[in-house]
Design a protein that fits this description.
308 residues, three-stranded antiparallel sheet, alpha+beta, binds zinc ion, seven-stranded mixed sheet, 41% helix, binds adenosine monophosphate
Length: 308
Amino acid sequence: MLVIEEAARAERTHFRDELVRQGLLVATGVAGLFGYNEEFEDTVGRVDRQVTALGQADHPEVMRFPPTISRACIERSGYLESFPHFAGAVRSFDGDARAHRSLLRRVEEEQDWSAGFAPTDVVLTPAACYPVYDALTGTLPDEGRLVDVMSYCFRHEPSDDPARLQTFRMHEHVRLGDETAIRTWHASWLTRAQGFASDLGLDARAVVASDPFFGRAGQLLAASQRDQRLKLEIVAPIASAGCPTAIISLNCHQDHFGKSFGIQTADGSPAHTACVGFGLERIALALYSRHGFRRSAWPRHICGVLGL
Ligand code: AMP
Ligand code: ZN
């Protein structure tokens, strides 16, 4: 087992180093935090537009939020119960001149300087769909709501895997409505998501998955999530051929967000919600992994799909 893990680790770091050597990724010295060159950004942008196009026939409302949400939003969402280990809160300096001098001294002496930083009203967005639920508190129209949202997200999971980022872009289609509408919508996106991956020539498959809930109680939540098939993932090889990575997730939240954010259907019952999240950097990385580092040499039909 250890040998397999070591081999996968070697594959991941090799792929990461090669991406940096090719100039596609710009290393920052922090695990899971990269800059991108013009071509990689262009590829991400093309994938992003494909995700928009995939949902266009349903005429979603488009919403865009900055990569921070209110402290109140994360408190209401239940994220701190389930994923405190991933959460990131924004703090800011609020001291006087003396505290400032002390701050600079600590920086100079390479000591921890964060003590002088007080909590702000914002935390880093953990998933693109969270601000949507916060915005839609109240009663839904009869047909529910459908939203296309994209945002940078933060999750504190530093890793040597270039596909496991601390800050990444997630483009989601989010549906809110009654239970039947949500179940049907969630199921219908499986075929669409598989078609999306296959159009990009990715060696992808669908799997039943679970979220990495915190702690012992989290293991029970994860087991129940799997039993009810509430989370499906489209996985594809990225850094390691043997350990494919989730590029798209199809999440059914039942009435969790409806209850937490006070969102009701027209008959007054808590709304059900589901979302389909596309990891934009992951999909771009999967393309480079599958078709090679030279984008100009990618198969013609793949270039056609991406408009290259
Ligand atoms: P989730 O909200 O966990 O269902 O994630 C939705 C999608 O975001 C996943 O299918 C991935 O494509 C992407 N994603 C999640 N975590 C990361 C990460 N640490 N780095 C890059 N992409 C991620
Ligand atoms: Zn979501």
